[in-house]
């Protein structure tokens, strides 16, 4: 019966009815219009706001660490296997629609990250906590809905997703290096345990070190492949555009598949609207000291994830078209394409990159779920110990298990999280618009806009002492 309920829910959210796609596209358009396409108007500023972003205080992490933590969760199998799946099912035109949904998703990510900052709280350890459950409770005064979101988050990010990412790592290592999942799973679990027991700051420091390295390594590889095949690039770009609108004779009947798969995989990859990244945004001490500053930071995260990293995967695959086994799926397509370009070292490179991409997601997922323990008054040594043991147990189990049913459960959890979060941020639109307007007005007179509660009309109330 439980499996039937999960299957029915997923069919509504992800399957035949595709409710989530419509909700997220609508949210992207809604916030793009309400914020007057801030992702385009202030495109350059989201890089500029990173100046001084390495500064933080003892209550939180720096904006740069929050960006890296957000990226560590966003960047995962979706960037390698998801892009390959989109192209195999929707053709090269799916890449264009992935770009479109990323541009729209930047506005959604901006909106939810602002709220994560505004409604954050300090826990007993004087650390910042926040996320959708917090702004639903404080901004909308709907504690029951906050609890529902937190439970879905624990089910998804706290348990299921980490198991799946661990499974991806052990599968890639076994395929390329013939390492037994029993041993590689044990190593993954042990290292993850060391990192997460240090809390959000430890996870942020790890992300700050690993994310730039793995991102730049992958970008460099893609740029190298592009330069070597530079004569093919104009044709690939034209094929993307023509296929996106069904202008190619071969793609004329596949327009719907291109749109559907491009949007679906783009949404899955950048997580804009899912309500995950606001947890990292809430933990930051932003520079300038204004909630909107963190909105720009996380908007940049959506751009890097999809417009940069997913595009790198797409160009590597498309430049190898005609030289890839058509029966391959997901990550195998990416590995096969990289092997075509780089020889056998390409297969090993992808295995190492997917290991890094997935492992950073494993530890970031812990931080997102752990931040909600405060909501249930469980952020004490007993609550954290029980949660940590459960999390590590799922990581090791996932490294060695067949995960079909867990995938279904995780899809349902992510889908319900997204529905709740999108509903919340839509209802909190007046606060988002007021905050953004306040920031932009102050930006005209100073480079460091300061947020004061008295200057902005907000819904609900923030925790006393967090914002003056």
From TrEMBL:
InterPro entries: Na/Ala_symport (IPR001463). GO terms for cellular component: plasma membrane. PROSITE patterns: NA_ALANINE_SYMP. Its main location: membrane. Keywords: Cell inner membrane, Cell membrane, Membrane, Symport, Transmembrane, Transmembrane helix, Transport. It is a multi-pass membrane protein. Signal peptide: none annotated. It is found in: Cell inner membrane; Cell membrane. It comes from the Bacteria. GO terms for molecular function: amino acid:sodium symporter activity. The chain crosses the membrane at residues 20-38, 96-119, 144-162, 182-200, 209-230, 296-320, 348-369, 381-399, 411-433. Pfam families: Na_Ala_symp. This is Alanine:cation symporter family protein.
């Amino acid at each position: 019966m439980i499996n039937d309920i999960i299957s029915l829910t997923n069919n509504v959210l992800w399957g035949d009815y595709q409710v989530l796609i419509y909700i997220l596209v609508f949210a992207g358009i809604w916030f793009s219009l309400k914020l007057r396409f801030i992702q385009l108007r202030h495109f350059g500023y989201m890089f500029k706001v990173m100046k001084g972003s390495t500064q933080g205080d003892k209550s939180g992490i720096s904006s740069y660490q929050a960006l890296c933590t957000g990226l560590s969760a966003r960047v995962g199998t979706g960037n390698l296997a998801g892009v390959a799946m989109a192209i195999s099912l929707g053709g090269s035109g799916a890449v264009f629609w992935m770009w479109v949904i990323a541009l729209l998703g930047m506005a959604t990510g901006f909106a939810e990250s602002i709220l994560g900052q505004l409604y954050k709280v300090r826990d007993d350890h004087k650390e910042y906590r926040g996320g959708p459950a917090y702004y639903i409770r404080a901004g909308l005064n709907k504690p029951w809905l906050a609890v529902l979101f937190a439970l879905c988050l624990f089910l998804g990010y706290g348990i299921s997703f980490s198991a799946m990412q661990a499974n991806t790592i052990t599968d890639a290592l076994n395929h390329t290096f013939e390492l037994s999942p029993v041993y590689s799973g044990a190593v993954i679990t042990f290292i993850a345990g060391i990192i997460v027991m240090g809390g959000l700051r430890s996870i942020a420091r790890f992300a700050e070190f690993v994310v730039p390295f793995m991102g730049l390594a992958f970008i460099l590889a893609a740029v190298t492949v592009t330069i070597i095949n530079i004569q093919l690039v104009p044709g690939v770009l034209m094929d993307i555009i023509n296929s996106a609108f069904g202008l190619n004779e071969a793609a004329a009947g596949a327009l719907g598949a291109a749109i559907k798969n491009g949007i679906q995989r783009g949404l899955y990859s950048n997580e804009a609207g899912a309500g995950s990244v606001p947890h990292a945004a809430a933990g930051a001490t932003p520079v300038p000291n204004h909630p909107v500053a963190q909105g720009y930071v996380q908007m940049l995260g959506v751009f890097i994830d999809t417009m940069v990293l997913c595009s790198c995967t797409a160009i590597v695959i498309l430049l190898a078209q005609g030289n890839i086994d058509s029966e391959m799926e997901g990550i195998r397509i990416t590995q096969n394409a990289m092997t075509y370009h780089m020889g056998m070292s390409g297969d090993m490179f992808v295995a190492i990159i997917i290991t890094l991409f997935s492992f950073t997601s494993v530890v970031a997922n812990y931080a997102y779920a752990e931040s909600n323990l405060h909501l249930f008054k469980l952020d004490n040594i007993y609550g954290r110990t029980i949660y940590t043991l459960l999390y590590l147990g799922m990581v090791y189990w996932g490294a060695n298990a067949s995960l079909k049913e867990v995938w279904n459960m995780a899809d349902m959890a992510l889908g319900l999280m997204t529905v709740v979060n999108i509903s919340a941020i839509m209802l909190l639109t007046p606060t988002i618009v007021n905050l953004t307007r306040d920031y932009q007005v102050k930006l005209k007179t100073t480079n460091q806009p300061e947020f004061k509660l008295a200057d902005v009309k907000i819904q609900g109330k923030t925790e006393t002492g967090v914002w003056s």
